Amino acid sequence: LYAYIYMYRPFKSYNQWFGRDNTMNKIREATIDDTAQVFLLASELATSFVVEYKAFSKSFEHCIHNESSLVLVAEDGEEIIGYLLGYDHYAFFSNGRITGTEEIFVKPEHRGSGIGKALMNKCEKWAKERFSTLSIVVTRRASEFYKSIGYEESAIYFKKDLTRIAEQNAGVDQRFRCAPSPTTQLNVIRCKFIH
Asked: What is the dihedral of CA 125, 127, 132, 133, to 10 degrees?
């Protein structure tokens, strides 16, 4: 009798037996009502920038309404415990669309319970529905996680902070007087150095 019950008992994973049950977690597309909670998570993820709420809310609203963007959230009850920001676009080298995961974050206390994988799976499903030929993640963090879900290390990336360049160039702009050139129809800029 015990063997019979055991055979038909629903299987429980290690995490379910020992308190890390993620069956209550739900992955869904974000809505405008998620702005504040996702902002807090994005602030934890950011290392190169300080995330400002006003700029974030504008970007968030744009992304949730842009058909080439995907914003997913992972919920535990009413609490958002993770999110993913993805995008897709056409590229020449891939013979079609590519999908990129721009940001993915899961609260530290929920890591290792399958939430990151579930977010990535949902993003990959979206990518396939849009006929993407390649899925990319540009990051130096969590490489073992990405390898475990089938990603291969491919390249390093270079970045340039354009906000800092604008601040640095503010002094340069004051030393130059620039005006559009009337001699051509192209947008050529003429600059004269001021001593």
From this structure: -50
